[in-house]
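User: Can you predict the 3D structure for this chain?
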Amino acid sequence: MDRPLYVHAIWDDAAQVWVATSDEVPGLATEAATAEDLVAKLKLLIPELLEANGILPASQVAFELLTRRFEVAA
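Assistant: Here is the predicted structure, written as C-alpha cells:
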C-alpha cells in the first residue's frame, strides 16, 4: 500500500476509552483507555483484519491515527 490507512478514534467520555474505527479496515472496532494502548492494539489488529478480509497479507502496514476529543475550558 502506497499510503497509510486512516483510523479514526473518538473519546467516549461515558466509558472513559478511545474508540477506533476505520472505513479502510473492514471489521475494525476496538477501544482502549489510552491512545498509547490503542496504538498497540491497532498494530496487531490491522494486519490481522486485512489478511482475514483478503486485502493484504499480514505484514507491516502503515496507519495514521486521527483522534478527536471534545472538552470544555472553564
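The two ends are 44 Å apart (CA to CA). The domain at 5-68 is CATH 3.30.2390.10 (TTHA1013/TTHA0281-like).
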